[in-house]
Design a protein that fits this description.
Strand order of the largest sheet: 2-1-5-4-3
Strand content: 25-35%
Radius of gyration: 28 Å
Shape: elongated
Structural class: alpha+beta
Number of strands: 7
Helix content: 40-55%
Length: about 200
């Protein structure tokens, strides 16, 4: 038997707990969304900003698939079915389209969830757009460097942090007559500086 005073105290504690939880979810630098039957029923402020919406009402009621890049539609749909059947999925890289049509890269986790007593899916989305663009720039720069290094007729040698040979190009091998297998990990001076 719970007395009226105890019930009110428990209700107050529950309200405070709910407010703390909501405050935490709203302040996270992650997009948090909940969907039921594929339609958004909740989105935090970060998700609103990430999806370039003016307010949460622009997101609520929309199919989550409306935000998925067309090339990823089928794989996302398959993952959604798995989550709705009880399987959690975390750290999946996906492409979304914002309400303004901008392509963004995200890392998504999805978990089975109960929302107001009904089955739902909770989404946690981390924006990795800048990280992805930076990685792509680095990859292109490395590819360009590698092509220049390998195709240059000039002798080029790369040293490690101890000053020993790490790589040589074909131009170096042709000019000095030494291969990388002979030089790797050794001081360059041992091979190309004449004795005094």
């Amino acid at each position: 038997i719970i007395y009226t005073g105890q019930r009110k105290e428990l209700e107050q504690k529950q309200k405070e707990s709910d407010l703390r939880h909501r405050s935490l979810v709203e302040s996270l630098p992650l997009g948090i969304g909940i969907h039921q039957k594929g339609r958004l029923v909740y989105a935090n402020e970060y998700a609103v900003s990430l999806m370039e919406a003016d307010n949460v009402d622009q997101l609520i009621g929309k199919s989550v698939l409306e935000f998925v890049h067309p090339e990823e539609f089928q794989s996302v749909k398959e993952r959604m079915i798995k989550v709705m059947m009880g399987q959690s999925i975390s750290g999946v890289r996906e492409r979304y389209l914002t309400l303004k049509g901008k392509e963004i890269f995200v890392e998504t986790s999805a978990y089975p969830f109960t929302f107001f007593g009904e089955p739902a899916v909770q989404l946690i989305v981390r924006d990795i757009t800048e990280q992805t663009k930076t990685q792509e720039k680095i990859r292109k720069t490395e590819l360009l460097f590698s092509e220049l290094f390998n195709s240059s007729p000039m002798a080029i040698v790369l040293l490690d942090n101890k000053g020993n040979v790490d790589r040589v190009n074909l131009g170096f091998e042709q000019m000095f007559g030494f291969t990388i297998s002979e030089l790797k990990g050794k001081s360059l001076n041992e091979f190309i500086v004449p004795p005094t």
